[in-house]
Write a structure and sequence with these properties.
26% strand
Length: 173
């Protein structure tokens, strides 16, 4: 079985501890499995590579962990509206599409129930962390990123969603 390891900002790579791995579709060389995986490549993965290892491997994550949704979350503390922000908003949707990104929260009204929350909240959902990082590091998004960062102050993270069913006590394990 092939294990998958998260390498932030590089996408997903396979951990090929031997020079070759055999699957029922084809023989995979270390060279072939060490390249970053992009959304178009993920769609062509042989099904045998999409099966999680039967035993947990320290430092490695199974495919099941990567199949959960991931989120790009921004706390937009301050935004200076102007032509650059308008252009950013006009272009961002096209950068999300190839990576399966979609807005769940985009500004709008909110009720602050504890402490303070200056600004707005943005939440973009992706199929998994690889797609989220693929979008963030894509040349299309990098072309427009400065339009936002030069005209706003924000905290931005990429976070994994939970695997369902999920209970609050699952984080204690």
């Amino acid at each position: 079985m092939v294990a998958v390891q998260a390498l932030p900002r590089d996408g997903i790579r396979f951990d090929a501890t031997k020079n070759q791995r055999q699957c029922h579709h084809k023989l995979l060389s270390q060279d072939a499995v060490s390249r970053p995986i992009t959304p178009d490549v993920i769609d062509r993965w042989p099904s045998c590579l999409q099966i999680a290892p039967t035993k947990p491997v320290v430092g490695l994550r199974s495919h099941r962990e990567f199949s959960r949704a991931a989120y790009a979350v921004a706390h937009m503390r301050q935004v200076t509206m102007g032509p650059q922000i308008v252009e950013y908003l006009q272009r961002i949707d096209a950068t999300l599409e190839p990576f399966g990104g979609r807005f769940l929260v985009h500004g709008g009204d909110m009720d602050v129930v504890e402490n303070e929350w200056p600004g707005h909240l943005i939440v973009i959902e992706f199929p998994d962390r690889a797609h989220a990082w693929g979008w963030y590091d894509s040349s299309a998004y990098r072309e427009i990123l400065a339009l936002r960062t030069d005209n706003s102050h924000a905290d931005v993270i990429i976070a994994d969603g939970v695997q369902h069913p999920h209970k609050a006590t699952d984080v204690l394990e």
